[in-house]
Amino acid sequence: MRVLVIEDDLELNKQLVEALENEHYSVDKAFDGEEGQFLGETETYDAIILDLGLPKLNGVSVLEAWRDLDAESPVKNVPVLVLTARNKWSEKVEVFDKGADDYVTKPFHIEEILARLRAIIRRHSGHSSAQITCGPVILDTRSSRITLNGKLVELTAHEFKLFAFMMHNPDEVFSRTELSEHIYDLQHDPDSLKDSNTIDVFIARLRKKLPGVNIDTIRGRGYRLSLPSPEPSSSDSK
What we know:
Layout: E1 2-6, H1 10-22, E2 26-30, H2 33-42, E3 47-51, H3 59-67, E4 80-84, H4 89-98, E5 102-105, H5 110-125, E6 131-134, E7 137-140, E8 145-148, E9 151-152, H6 157-168, E10 173-174, H7 176-183, H8 196-209, E11 214-218, E12 222-226
Parallel strand pairs: 1-2, 1-3, 3-4, 4-5
Antiparallel strand pairs: 6-7, 7-8, 8-9, 10-12, 11-12
Helix pairs in contact: 2-3, 6-7, 6-8, 7-8
């Protein structure tokens, strides 16, 4: 899962990025509204953390610009968690009306940010529980653990990011390019790693480590994590 952090406070930006990376997110960062708006409109993210008191362009203007884009723009519907030092109820109402998905007042604990971020990503994907299930596999979004038939599965950082993204979006077909956009960040991942063939390698490893999980190859289009068909009820067999 890929997250954009837009926060002008250098130390807080650093703390947020480090905490997110420790939770296996790929993270890009910006320090002013103009840079943040540009990244949001030109890159692909699963969630955005947006401070309101930004230089060059304030966070409310950035959020409003994103929500006013055409439906084809990926950032139009990306969940946004707003950070602010303001605490007036009227300002909270304004931010929600502009399209924010959640709102946190400074100062805050990083753990709260992580929990709220997990929640808005789950809601955006249609999941209400912290545990996402696909057949015998369970992804615990709180602990960043994946189990198969109750046993912990050891995945590399990029394997985890790829499979977690597919778990949040089952039965959807994603091209290699789309999958790359959701698991790599601009600052740390070299261009050589972003080659589409690398996705094929990760998929092959996941199939080996997660037997019984259906990661289908859709010829000419990409890959799809297929949910298992429901077991027929006893009444259906009569």
